[in-house]
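Shape matters. Shown next:

___
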Amino acid sequence: MEKNNSNKHNSAILILAGKVNLKNYNFKSHEYLFNIGNSLAFEKILKNLNSDPETTTIYIAVSKLSNKFQKLLPFQKAIFIEVGNTKTVLDSISNALEKIKEKSISILPITTIPEIPNINNKCCYFGSKQIPKENWSSISKIDNQNYEFHFKNDKDSYGLFSHPCTGRIVADKLHLKESIKEINNSKKSDILFLVEILIKKYQYNAIFEKWFDIGHEATYIESKLTSMTSRFFNNVNFLEENNTILKSSNDVEKIKGEYFFYKNLSNKLKNFFPHIYFEKDTNENINNIEMEFIPYPNLAEIFLFKNIGPNSWIRIINSIKKIYSSFYLEEKYQIQNNASWLYSSKLLYRFRMAKKIIENSNNSNLKNLLEKGIYVNKIFYTGSLYQTVESLGKFLNEYENNLKQYIGHGDLCFNNILVDQISGCIKLIDPKASLHKETNIIGLVDPNYDLAKLNHSYKYLYDSIVNNLYSIKIDNNYSQLSIYAPAEYYLVNKLFNKILINNCIDDNLLRKLTASLFISMLPLHKDDEDRFFCLAILGSIVYKNIDFRNFVIQI
């Protein structure tokens, strides 16, 4: 994707990156990879600003440039400005301004998630709710046009109920430059000194919006709740008055199945899930579930964005092993029967959907992938998707013929595993909870299906793909694919294999089951052609047992 041509644009967005350290959350983040939930804060900011790429240039100010990061899809939207290891926020802004040509600039710290798009020029933004001031600056209203300014290091205003300064400014570049010149070096660590000049000298407006800030421990959890996203047919909302989660769905049968899956579990297995508030019986039309709010991050977030060390990973994987054993080794299987509904039938049904999507697309590269194949990283040729699916289908037909099936989770990917990284305590969410029509049993699953779900997360980086932490370039019949692998990728692979995987499943079987997962999920990502393409290629990579190290990048 080509960079924006700033000469043709009227305005600019400047996002100020930087390192963040939240000690109480055992949280340290690289300036490029600061996240809110599973998503990059950078992407969340751009989505909420809803700016026009035809008229607005996006800049991101960083201490040091990284070519590897710049390749990833989200950052292809931006022009990077290297500001160096500056000591203060105003020094970073000043250095960045020298490289920005636009006259109107919207400035945001990467920790501030805007609630509303930019309203107009000459604005400074504050939190609409008055909260006790901690390690930030804030203002109090004297009247509709006058404010009292409480600076970050003012001890007298600590704990004062006031409107936090969000650090978000929409300003004329000239005003920014002239204002920064007036500020003493000792005050340049507090952006409120800049805001005060803009409001008093240049009559900037104060705009009040909800303050979502993920750079302060006091606001982190509340801000993170805004990152809860709906997936496919489901909607998830936090009920503040009850401190619970309400999950609803347009797919009534799916949500009803999940409800009774929870209700029918033994007390021992219920312990692995959030508490569910049972207030309905089988005769009711069930379209939502209210459950306990668990404030843990999911394992995808920990894996992608945190370095927690081998001891924490050992505790986490041992907890997953305990859950796996409780479901599949200590409990008796429910039926021993054909499981084509879980494997071959689902694969063929989803492939027919994917085939129709490709045929209706104008993308010739997708059609080549379907009918012929493409070259990837000059390493291997995928062959046609037809061939891969046909071969996988034959294998699955034999494998699924007489499988022992247990009550189990059925979707044990990292995104569905909530983890306290200190203790290793785990809660599971979003079970598959399908109704087996022949037996009327909810939640039947092959144990190896959950192992494949884990494998596609920790080894084949599914969570990097769905969170756009990859790059793909396609030219005629050739593609170049790079997928972000977190710092502890190889450590986590080693520990999962040693503690759980190697003792439970043959590697060849695991690989083929994982390949079928990637191809089966293609139609679920039809709205994103790059991701669709990437997942299709991954299905071929996994099935053909190509060395995955050829496709990962680490920073």
Remarks:
- The chain has a mean pLDDT of 90.
- The chain has three domains: 6-226, 228-292, 299-553.
- Residues 228-292 form one domain.
- DSSP finds 18 helices and 31 strands in the chain.
